[in-house]
Design brief:
The protein contains 5 helices and 5 strands. The protein is α+β, with helices and mostly antiparallel strands and 180 residues long. Strands 3-2-1-5-4 form a 5-stranded mixed sheet. Helix 1 packs antiparallel against helix 2 and helix 2 runs antiparallel to helix 3. It is globular and about 55 Å long.
Length: 180
């Protein structure tokens, strides 16, 4: 992810382009079970993604509970650039992604499905914070013009309750970019 972002910056690209391109590497990696394709599902077996992006001008976009689209970060950027809104969630976020021409597909890989099936056999669903599997990728960059940007993307807490959203896609909680 860092190498990809760095190559965008080295070629004169913007910080916003760099952070988007960087985290997309992890979103597309089916072996990373915490972000994007192959992310661990909720307790019902559905992979939902959360992401946000922000530039140093205060422009930002976020998606929460997005199903069926690998690059949640790119959908979040479109929310920022193409709508008067900051956040789109669930079915509305998916409809927007479809309208914007993003390709859809199944995000649950066989490895994540098998792990979820094993979890269901033993689960007692009494989650404790920071105990169950979860992770996020966050990335910040500054470009040649001194502009800052940040991106954060995740499949969230493994085996979470349907509809659960953590802090990652919340502007001011999971990400905030301040040029000061």
């Amino acid at each position: 992810a860092t190498s990809r972002a760095w190559s965008v910056l080295q070629s004169g690209g913007s910080a916003l382009d760099a952070v988007e391109a960087g985290v997309m590497v992890e979103e597309a990696d089916p072996n990373n079970q915490t972000v994007g394709l192959g992310g661990r599902p909720d307790r019902d077996g559905v992979v939902t993604l959360d992401a946000c992006i922000m530039d140093s001008g205060g422009n930002c976009g976020s998606v929460m509970g997005l199903e069926g689209y690998v690059h949640a970060i790119s959908v979040a950027r479109k929310v920022m650039e193409e709508t008067p809104h900051v956040i789109l969630i669930g079915a509305g976020a998916a409809a927007f992604a479809r309208e914007q021409g993003f390709p859809s597909g199944e995000l649950l890989t066989e490895a994540s499905r098998e792990e979820w099936v094993r979890w269901k056999e033993t689960e007692n669903y009494q989650p404790e914070i920071n105990i169950e599997n979860h992770d996020t990728i966050g990335m910040l960059a500054i470009d040649r013009d001194g502009a800052l940007a940040g991106a954060c993307t995740t499949s969230g807490l493994a085996y979470k309750m349907r509809g659960r959203v953590g802090d990652s896609p919340v502007i001011g909680a999971g990400l905030y970019v301040d040029p000061e």
